Amino acid sequence: VTVGTYGVRPMRVIVRLAIDGITLPVAPRGWSLDRQLVERAQRGDETAFAMLVQRSGDRLHAVAHHILRDSDLAADATQQACIEMWRRLAQLRDPDRFDAWAYRIVVRAAYAECRRRSVWRVVADLSGSSSGMDAGHGVDDRDQLERGFARLSMDHRTVVVLKHFSGLSNAEIADVLELSEGTVRSRLYYAMQTLRAALEADQRLPEAVAR
Amino acid sequence: MSSDDQLERQVERWLAETARPMPPELLDDVLLELPRTSRRSWRPAGIPWRARRPVLAVGIAAVLIVAVGLAGNAVPFLQRWLPAGAGSPAPTGLVRTWDPAADFRVGSLAANPSDDAYGNAGVWAYLYGPSTAQDPASYALMPTFNVKLDQWWVPAFRTLNIYPNPDGTALELHSFRTGNEGIRTAILRWTSPVAAQVRLHAQFTLGQTCQVQGDGVIVSVDDAATRLWTAAIPAHETRTFDTTIAVETGAPLYVVVEPGADSNCDTTTLVLRISTP
Predict the structure, then answer these.
(1) Separation CA B37–CA B55 (nearest Å)
(2) B149 neighbourhood in chain A, CB within 8 Å
(3) Distance from CA of residue A154 to its chain's centroid?
């Protein structure tokens, strides 16, 4: 598998800074939100905000890293997202929705970071990789998913991450990404089909070698 | 289960297993940025994290060199002006009470173990344990005092920390658990500076309100070899332990907080009083 660097691909999701006034989705599973901390941070308590970042930072960074597939870009995106959260926190109307609001900001920061750096990394077509054939018998599901996931576009990766890592519903993803639910469903379907194809392709490789 | 469901479970598992936690340095960098970042400001956030690291390292090194130099000059100066006997133990025969929240800022914030209010060195220690086993030999000192967060913490386990509550009347202990990195307990140690009967009063409260409330925590009070008391605390509940024990000088008592099956909403508020009769 080879990694190449390509030019900027057009972003269909435009990064907007107008965050207030938008209906936010309910909290996804797996989050531990302390409403009092959010309220203290909204009043300008830096220590409370720091603790919010400390508690939610891992998940936000993981989302950025899954979307960007690059540790340095993910770190920069997370940093920018945290600073943006501090600037905009007073505009968050419902502290109970801090986590979904934070997801929205980190996704936007990931897109902005990708666009700013003008790089886009994709893994080359698996079918053209002789190393994939050689490694066929030893490749486990993790490697197959890794390759399949890297072949997805950023838009498709984002919906997969929000759905299957953050636990958002289709409606919530649509809200975070400002897309229609139909578009979210379509992207999810395409992404999962691509992942399935990658898994099945890898399963076929050993059979082809055996023949 | 359909093949679609199987694929979804497979993807969920893979995403969870390959999730990268936030680098600890990144949290520090965000905190450094906050005071210069106005909510009303639209100016750029500054140099990206990656580019700023070497600049920060040089800056911190310079500040440390200057601080060490100043401290060296200041000690003889302060010694001339401080009253004689400052920092010495209180007279014997008086009732003494040890309160970790009150003592949190006694002495140097960078010291772990740290002093008590009577000037006894190394009375309090902020520790963490690698498992739920009662094994003081495996406990380690929390390595970092985060000035911005006002807490002892373990950067490698982001939310593993001990800090005073906002009004300084109690300590808050936060243990750690993830699927990949396992379990870490948060531990407060009191090392007795006296040989006496002491009354120990410990009140634990799990008072946070969270959207994902979790399964609560398990707390324990141990001496060097014995588990004196343990209790499971569900969300929004309080447990109290009150006892009188004989301690020797240098004998440790441990207050241990375990995360349970998850670490959601596990911040445990501890009001601890240890007093001589």
Answers:
(1) 19
(2) 47, 50-51, 54
(3) 8
Omega within 30 of 0 (cis) for the link into B113: yes
Q: What are the beta bridge partners of residue B164?
A: B171
pLDDT of residue B93: 58
Q: What is the 3-state secondary structure (H, E, C) of A67-95?
A: HHCCHHHHHHHHHHHHHHHHHHHHHCCCH
Instruction: Suggest the residue from B37, B38, B52, B211 to mutate for an interface test with chain A (most A CBs closer than 10 A).
Output: B211
- Average pLDDT estimate for A18-40: 50
Cβ distance B194 to B96 under 8 Å?
yes
Can you give the pLDDT at residue A157?
A: 93
Range B89-114 average pLDDT: 78
Q: In chain B, which residue's Cα lies nearest the Cα of A194?
A: B7
Cα B83 versus chain centre, distance = 33
Best of A52, A53, A89, A101 to substitute, by most chain B Cβ atoms within 10 angstroms, is A53
Single-letter amino acid, residue A4: G
Q: Report the complex ipTM.
A: 0.71
> Are B89 and B118 in contact, with CB atoms under 8 Å apart?
yes
* Pairwise CB contact (< 8 Å): B209 & A34: yes
| Nearest residue to A109 (alpha-carbon basis) of A86, A139, A138 | A86
Q: How many CB atoms lie within 10 A of CB B261?
A: 11
CA geometry: angle at A32 spanning B134 and B204, to 5°? 45
**pLDDT at position B13, please?**
85
CA distances from B22 to A50, A75, B212 (A): 13, 7, 21
In sequence order, the β-bridge partners of residue B222 are B227, B254
B5 touching chain A per CB within 8 A: no
Task: Give the whole-angstrom CA distance, residue A83 versus residue A98.
Answer: 14
User: Within its chain, how far is the Cα of A104 from the centroid?
Assistant: 10
pTM given for the model: 0.55
Determine contact, residues A25/A191, Cβ cutoff 8 Å: no
Q: Residue A133 in contact with residue A147, Cβ under 8 Å? A: no
| Percent of chain A residues topping a pLDDT of 70 | 68
Residue B99 and residue B170 in contact, taking contact as beta carbons nearer than 8 Å: no
- In chain A the first and final C-alpha atoms are separated, in Å, by 23
* Packed helices B49-81 and A71-88: angle between N→C axes, nearest 10 degrees: 60
Comparing A29-38, A108-117, B180-189, the range with the smallest average pLDDT is: A29-38
Calculate the alpha carbon distances from A130 to A2, A136, B91 in Å: 10, 10, 81
- Region A65-75: mean pLDDT is 90
Q: Report the pLDDT averaged over residues B80-104.
A: 63
Between chains, do A87 and B41 touch, taking CB under 8 Å as contact?
A: yes
How many CB atoms are closer than 10 A to CB B89? 13
pLDDT band at B237 (very low <50, low <70, confident <90, very high): very high
